[in-house]
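Quick one:
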Amino acid sequence: MAQQTPVTQAGVFTNLASELPVVPKSTTSRVVLDNDLIRVVEFTFDAGELLTEQASPRAVVVQLLEGTMSFTVDGAESTLHVGDVVYLAPGTPHALVATTACRMSLVMVEAGAHLAGEN
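Output:
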């Protein structure tokens, strides 16, 4: 797991793809950045691997970096291709299945006061 990174400390994170290869018949992940406001996790999935339905208390942004996957958001399924982005409001149920070997970046953001109706 990544070391806690203070919100006030900038950083550059390199060589992520080479340090987290796609492993046959596996789903792998690595926490890249973690603090009170944001958490960045890189995932790899071999073809056929999946994440069962779940929800996060944080707002989530997913970007597919390699491959294709089927991504279900609140019961609606979409096919994602390289570069596609998914936004998940806090508490939104979601699941995925890798249709090919995939790499994705997941960013969780603490929504804080915005949950109380602020924009």
